[in-house]
Amino acid sequence: MEKTFRNYDQSDVTTAVRNHYRKMRQKQTLEYVRRMQKKYLTFDKPMDLWDAMAHLNDLIDVSDPDLDLPNVQHLIQSAEAIRADDRPDWMQLTGLIHDLGKVLFLWGSDEDGTSQDEQWGTVGDVFVVGCALPDSCVYPEFNTLNPDMADERYNSDTGIYKAGCGLDNLTLAWGHDEYLFQVLRKHSDNKLPEEAMVMIRYHSFYPWHTGGSYAKLLHEKDQRYLKIIRDFNKYDLYTKSSKAYDLDEVKEYYRPIADKYLGTGPIYW
Ligand code: FE
Ligand code: FE
Question: How far apart are the first and last CA of the chain?
Answer without folding.
Answer: 42
